[in-house]
Specification:
Radius of gyration: 23 Å
Shape: elongated
Number of helices: 10
Distance between the termini: 11 Å
Number of strands: 19
Largest sheet: 11 strands, mixed
Structural class: alpha/beta
Length: about 400
């Protein structure tokens, strides 16, 4: 990824960045005083606001600490060690990842605690992770097991004298991985205890697949699942070393704090969307946003800027950003603001609505008398950060004065 392309077009690897920046490693860009709108950045462009990232990291850290939870943000969302730094500077316990590749990214970046929230079936990486933990006394690595076959796979993959810490994943009907019943939990627990190379560290689960609603029924279902997770933890606790229990995506971390709190083990929450947040899904459903009262709210950090290409019909603008640049799995982007090509003359976006996306175009319906024209820039808010970042290998980070303070690499 860091070498030149075969055709010699060094500097053209990252869309939106000026070639002179893209040809670098992107380190040390902060402090140059680069203006977002006058330094050669191209459009469309994903921008993260530094103030919102800092705010969100502090808000979640304070929330978790007040409830006795530790944080291991799920960094599949951004796959960026630079963005992870915002959480780590606020005292995050470690990082969560979903795949061996993601684990390698954060291990190489110097992170010391890595939770692979998934079954590990890649034998070569199991050996790599065991060697990595053995090479540093302050390193911790955890992965999931949910079957006797999975336990035997890991045990057989490891070299004699090495070890891995595992968490028994508790699942639910219709969910992803995880033991579906008590008999399986007992069998997996016994299999781990028989192994000389696996260390039982606790249990884990994902409540976000139980429900996607915060109505009475949804909250009740999630609580019931978390109570099952807690009961499983109680059953395996006598066999655990330095025990922990982990749950808590971006939607129900408040219930995790209420249902799993204990002084007998560590509670590790894994929200992934909170650092960048959004203007849609989590804006409406997060316990730290919407109309909920109480702690400070999270702030959307993500915006995608797109140019107006043409006004081919009254009440229609075609923007230069589409499905390659904007996610739409949890709703189309929201139009937040319009500016001229130099980022000046900010205008409200009342009456604007994105109605459809093509690969490289967005259809915006707007009041017929809107003065927006070709070359103007439109600031878009997205819904669901987890599918927004993977369209970008970099994220430009700017302050509130539109000065670029960093360009974060994202390893997808």
């Amino acid at each position: 990824m860091n070498g030149p392309l075969d055709d010699g077009t060094v500097g053209l690897r990252f869309k939106g960045l000026p070639p002179a920046l893209a040809a670098e490693t992107l380190d040390g860009i902060g402090g140059r005083g680069l203006g977002l709108f006058d330094s050669g950045f191209g459009w469309p462009l994903m921008v993260l606001r530094d103030s919102a990232l800092r705010h969100n990291a502090a808000v979640m850290a304070g929330y978790a600490a007040a409830r006795g939870m530790l944080l291991a943000p799920h960094l599949k969302t951004t796959s960026s060690p630079h963005i992870a730094g915002y959480a780590m500077r606020e005292g995050a316990w470690g990082v969560t990842v979903a795949t061996p590749f993601q684990a390698r990214v954060f291990m190489a970046a110097g992170h010391r605690r890595v939770l692979l929230a998934n079954q590990l079936v890649e034998r070569s990486f199991a050996r790599e992770a065991a060697a990595w933990t053995a090479a540093g006394k302050d390193r911790e690595f955890y992965c999931y097991v949910d079957s006797v076959a999975g336990v035997e796979l890991l045990d057989g993959a490891l070299e004699p004298g090495t070890s891995l810490s595992v968490l028994i994943e508790v699942g639910h009907a219709g969910g992803r991985g995880g033991c579906r019943d008590d008999a399986t939990i007992s069998a997996v627990t016994a299999a781990v205890r028989r192994s000389d190379r696996l260390i039982l560290a606790g249990v884990s689960g994902y409540e976000g697949s139980v429900s996607h609603a915060r109505d009475g029924s949804g909250l009740s279902s999630v609580r019931a699942y978390l109570r099952r997770l807690r009961a499983t933890m109680a059953s395996v606790l006598p066999y655990c070393e330095n025990p922990l229990i982990s749950a808590g995506g971006s939607l129900y971390f408040d219930l995790v704090a209420e249902e799993l709190a204990s002084d007998r083990y560590r509670v590790i929450a894994r929200p992934g969307a909170y650092l960048t947040h959004d203007h849609g899904l989590y804006r409406s459903l997060s316990p730290l946003d919407g109309d909920a009262a109480g702690p400070p709210r999270l702030r959307p950090a993500i915006e995608v800027w797109a140019p107006v290409l043409t006004r081919p019909e009254p009440g229609l603008a075609i923007l230069g950003a589409g499905r390659r640049d904007l996610n739409h799995d949890e709703g189309l982007p929201a139009v937040l603001e319009i500016r001229d090509h130099l980022g000046r003359d900010a205008r409200p976006a009342g009456g604007w609505e994105i109605t459809a996306l093509n690969d490289q175009h967005a259809y915006a319906r707007l009041p017929e008398g809107s003065p927006a024209g070709p070359g103007d820039l439109v600031r878009l808010g997205i819904s669901h950060p987890c599918t927004a970042h993977d369209r970008w290998l970099t994220a430009v980070i700017a302050d509130d004065a539109d000065t670029v303070v960093a360009v974060a690499r994202c390893y997808f």
